[in-house]
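Task: fold both queries, return tokens.
Query 1:
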Amino acid sequence: MSGFKGRTLRPASLRQASKNQAMTAGLGVAVGLSAMMMMPAQALAQEPEQLATVKVQDTAIDANPNAEPGVPYKAKVSGDERHTRPLAETPQTINVLTKAQIDDSGYTDLTRILDAQPGITLGTGENGNAFGDRYVIRGQEAKSDTFVDGLRDPGMTIRESFAIEQLEITKGPNSTFAGRGSSGGAINAITKQATPFLDFANVQGTIGTDDHLRLTADVNKVVSDSFAIRANALYAKEDVPDRAPAYRKREGAAISAYFTPTDAFEATLDYYGMRAKDNPDVGGYLVAGKPAPNVPSYVQKEDFLESDVNTFTARLKYRFSDNVRLTSLTRYGSADNGYVISGGRSGTTGANNPGGVYPTTTLSAHQGWQEVRYFANQENLFVNTNLLGLDHELIFSLEYTDNAVKNGVYGVTNTGAFNCITGTGATLNNFCLTGANGALVAGGNSLLKRSIVKGTWDTDWQIKTISASVMDTVDLTDKLTVFAGLRYDTFDFTLDVQNTTTLVKASYPYSDDLWNGHLGVTYKLRDGVIVYATYASAADINGGESDVGTSSGYGGVVIYNGSIAGAKPERSQSFEVGAKWNVFDETLLLTGSVFQVTKSDVMEGANYDTIGTFNSGKNRVTGFEVGATGALTDKLTVQAGATYMESEVLASATPANVGKSLANFAKSSGVVQLKYQATDSFYFGGAVKYEDKRYGGQPDTAAPFDAITGAYTRPVPSYTVLDLFASYRVNPNFEVRLNVSNVTDEAYYLAVYRGGFFLYQGDARATRLTLNYDF
């Protein structure tokens, strides 16, 4: 990570840090403490009024308040202050990616960042649903379990890293923190926020192959002792590597203002805006169970994938005393998404085709739009108290959310002229994208000449939820610690469905209550070493996925005997046993765990049909995970992890599914990213990521299986990808970094649609040169 060198640390800020040490979970406080730790002890011993301005020339100051000082890849604490203990003492697997690690990787979109992490696979947008990102954690769907600063982010949007300080992946059911869903885990993005402790400005410009251009700015200004403002900006565009004319374009802004009028009160107000506009290339497709070779980019000129996001967040903190404080989070957000994309599939020209009979590629159109509006308020009361002779860290939480997602359709008409004959026809009747030589035909990227008109809505998904929870962390002895949490959610759900032709409407309302808990125990074997055991539960609802309406097989509403009501919530339970070892003066964290996640009462739908069965499915995932994050030596830094898992369908309304592996599930995956600081000015490194083969299909059930051949029919091959990077700091303010991703130009695939005609392709080799300047 680029550091902020030569920055002025202000005495007033240091005075404020002394006042706020009791609120160490606050954003700016940890930055101030880190800054003070870098100062000589004699300076700290002085009265604040006598402190001189200090210039830090040789030590980079990390703007991330949760980072381990001096260890760029290692986070010390979670950005969610409800985790009251350091990550090395938390009885759960939480993988944390710091901004430094993300920057070195060269990845910017969350899809690529998370795809490199163990235990996570990607899914396709089913039926061509291209809204944003779809993640699968420990075999369980998690596309609706993405959070920003602890609040659910319900829009199925394209997510970017320019405003992210730290990315946290919690493994295992997490409903005590997250509420409904989170069967396999949750993703929480910690954003960059204004800090009153130092002025800094950083600008980066990146150029590269495939017409890559990326510009970012990150500026923090301390206006006074009690007020600071921070702004981040992004502009980026590129052709999809080796898949032009497909392209990606991103524009973003994030503004944060910090105000602390008294020692007891602080407020942070944020705005986040993101505009993404792609001409999206899906990639390849399957032929006879294998990726079709040498598929050209068949994206059509009129195709698009757009996401327009605006969120406003207020964070208010008040300290009543040294032992009682309140954090209030309020957010209003909107996301407008839309897409028309092409899916490719194998075809063959007919006997009457003017060019003869040959294999070719034909296209299908997939489209939809989405309007997301959401409001959330979360109140967290932190109380440190002594009960029955034991010190307790209590958290009482109340939360209200109102999420509404309206989905609609586009009218898509192909006005281009047919260019081939398929089937038994005698006249031109189809669009063939490739000729007899397998190459894209002339004008193939604008062959269809699509006319696109935005149509009416077809589903209106709404859920209002009130939640209450209590958590407690208590040291029973100097070695034994217990964490416990209990959460209650009550919700009102409505799905309105409209036939887009007849405009006939139907409504499916219901309500229910959810109870979930979490219990963890840690035992300190010696300083820096703990063993732990944890149990957690999660629950999800009928129709919990907002983007699929009545597609019951993909998390949409399941109707049974004419009713949506009557189903029990889907239930998940997780058991995990592990160990964490914080070594080398807490600069390296080693972790290991074994786990089992069982999901029962699963709603089983059928493809895109509304009708399904209530609570008839059950599946189980077992496995182990190991990790290492931090400094191996004073020059070598690592972020590494590996997971091995087995999955099995235990019960199903379709007997043939029992005993099969889950869809979108990779047994093994891993990543190792190493960084070597060769000199004070130069470092280099690389990352190797591996993911085992997996098979496409519906969530929460078996991948499609051919009983005759004894093989799964929608495979995604395993892959190994190598990335390299190097950085040279020309002077304290100027740094140059080179990234080469997919060095071997591996042809690899991220996910497959059940039908086989979406085989999402990973990026080809790309080279990027970044100029980084700190003011």
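Query 1 returned. Query 2:
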Amino acid sequence: MSQDTLDRPAVHALLADGTTVCIRPVIPADHGRLRELYEEMSPENLRLRFFSLSPRSAGRAADRACAPARPGYRALLAERQGQVIGLAEYDTGGTGDEAEISIAVCDGLHHRGVGTLLVEHLVSAARAEGVTAFIADALGENREVLRLFADLGLRTARRIEGPEVRCTIRLDEDDTYMAAVEARGRGADVASLEPLLRPHVVAVVGAGRRPGSVGRAILHHLKSGGYSGRVFAVNPHADHVLGTPSYPRVGALPRTPDLAVVVVPAPAVAATAEECGRAGVRALLVVTTGLDAGQARALLAACRTYGMRLVGPNCLGVSHTDPALRLDATLAADHPLPGTAGVAVQSGGVGIALLGGLSRLGIGVSSFASLGDKYDVSGNDMLQWWESDGRTDLALLHLESFGSPRAFSRTARRVTRRMPVLTVDAGRTDAGRRAAASHTAAAATGTMTRQALFTQAGITATRSIGELLETAALLHAQPLPAGNRVAIVTNAGGAGVLAADACAEEGLVLPPLTPEVVDDLLAVLPEGAVAGNPVDTTAAVTEDGLADVVARLMRHPGVDAVLVVLVPTAVAAATGDDLVRALTSAPAHRAKPVAAVRLEQDLPVTLLPAAEGGAIPSYTEPQAAARALAHAARRAAWLARPAGTVPGLDGADTARARRITETFLRAHEDGGWLDPRTCADLLACYGIPQLPWAWAENEDDAVVAARRLCGADGRVVMKAHRPGLPPKSRPHAVHLDVRGEAQVRAAFQDFATRFAGLLTGVVIQPLAARGTELSAGAVQDEVFGPLVLFGPGGTATGMLADHAGRLAPLTDNDVHDLITAPRCAPLLSGADGPVDLAALEQLLLRLSRMVSDLPQLAEVDFDPVLAAPDGVTVLDAHVRLLPREPQDPYLRRLR
């Protein structure tokens, strides 16, 4: 095995049945346990593995796996509670890009996904080393291993050679393989959450006798909520707590709990977790707060060792409102109303607010998880649970951190196709907007990366808890609009003006009504009414008249949604007309959404019961209704757009790019800015177009280079280089429009004086032709991965706060969104004609591929990028590297 194999850390991952295993490299000390793995196999399985029944096969296999490190060989094992249950290995023989692969799984654990999980991890490791294919030989009767290879999601070719079958498995990374890995991960994840969210037996560890204690409160909540399973208390000082049998320790319980709710002091949490693991508990809910770093590590280690999923610590609890279960292990004041919204939060206070709001609206909750410090179970886990539970049709998230944003993004992109996913974009500040006015690399802020994640994944990001509930009410009760065209109907002209302003501010359009529609409306409106948009019905409108107006507008093909703004009037009171009833008496399940604004309403948003069991969302403020309609319109547009794909690129030489990166970092252990020649070589690996250039280390070479590029009197640009010169210093290291030998020499001498003793050379380029100056760049976020940025370039970079960002790898949709950003799009028309959009798209896609391939690229700055009708050229490029180990963000593993 290679030294890199030994350096790779152990990870924990889920098998198909939801149990946890540790995947790690083999070390010499594993020799005895590997022999046991083979020696305990049945003769039939040994024959299928080794094609014979030689008594020496087990020892030879253990010797090979535990031998000293050698190039091209890797061995990974799966272990559970100290027992080796599987081994997978590949060997290239030290040469070539194909590797022989073999797999062994202990008897009794077949069909649990052990072999598949090991192969997925081998695939990830092999790709990182440049291996392009696995070769596997199996007996034709070994249907299990042949099915394993066939179901991986990778292109597999078979060739029958007598009794054997040779499988060639191509390790291409594509959406087919990613989808297969996701499907396996989703099934394993959901299975692992069953003991947490659908437990048959719950124990409250630390349930006290003192009124007001946290453990006692959770126990009371479980009982008063009507939990249908068995409940036990664990308290060494009591026989009963709240009438519930109590036992001195978890191991003394008459039945093993599926879920243990841990409410003990922080120093005792890890030992309690260890005891739960030994007893066979499958899930922990740790409410306790204040764990220090050591206590946190010990808690998570116990959970990983014994395969327990963990919610918390420092959390409010979990609930599942299935009528057959009625689990409410939370500290909320009231039990949530059963319903169809899934809720996951990190803040307990936010969780209480959402539970109360959803219950008040009548939407209710399917399941709820307060994730707290989120050591294990995350928003990604909960999304997959809701996707599969058959009850949830609306997902609400409040997440303050992301453990694996790229995995979360892939899950969210899939889930948002099936149900709305809403979140609160917390932590917004002016800093994000100010940063976009600086150069491209500095424009990457936490705000921008988070917003890019939400946008690309189709997540509806709101700005407050109130807005979240307002939007949830509309998405729950009404269909999505086909577009953003809104017709406003009001019985008070001033209220209609407020609604029109609110809609315009949210990007909604109030289309003028056609003469035919105007005549149609005036036929049923009272005298003095105005059939514009807004439609002012006046206070004299009747209940039937209002219903008729709304119905006619709903039939109008130029209207996507109707917003009805009502105020109570003496006229309606005198006639007995109920204008609200005009909305609710019609079937709510119409093809277009209807929302109401009632200025006298007490609550910010309510759902008005309507005919046929539907509901109409009603808001206190026009702004709230407009925000909700705008979110609905954006979701409809996202769903109508085909899912983006990452286009393939011709001419990308990833292997050479990795060699360039590794060579630089060997010489610069702390990383740094690439010199111009290395930078140009790296860009050339991805076919990124650059202006012709030459390198010169003295005056004479500079004169020769300028003459070769542009002739004796051609106009050139000269750029000084000294090691470590950051991009922000470049204005002091550039001479523009240099002509002739004398000016070239003078410019070189100026650089030599200005950077005395530090100048290593100059870059010489022809003076660029006319075109539109843009900028492109990328940063490597430690958590979110690479973020690609695009915006105005050159002198405009410091003035327009309009850099758009998208997380790499970019799809064709992402590229389109970048180049159509509001202030960038007008620039692309160009003073000399429209720029070459196809070339610009290629530049962004190649930049995306480069930063996705090379996690060591901490910062990339192309500014300016010259865009013209006949192509796109990078005039100035700067790349900074940092020593980072590549990580596969989609590899199945627990955090």
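Both queries returned. Flag for query 2: Residues 1-6, 431-445 have pLDDT under 50 and may be disordered.
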